[in-house]
Amino acid sequence: MQIPERKQGRLPDIVNRETRSRMMSGIKGKDTKPEILLRTGLHRLGFRYRLHARNLPGQPDIVLAKWRAIIFVHGCFWHGHDCHLFKMPSTRTEFWRNKIAGNAQRDSKAIWQLANDGWRIGTIWECALKGRTRRQLKDVLRQTKHWLKHGSGNLVISGTE
Question: How far apart are CA 37 and CA 35, in angstroms?
Answer without folding.
Answer: 5
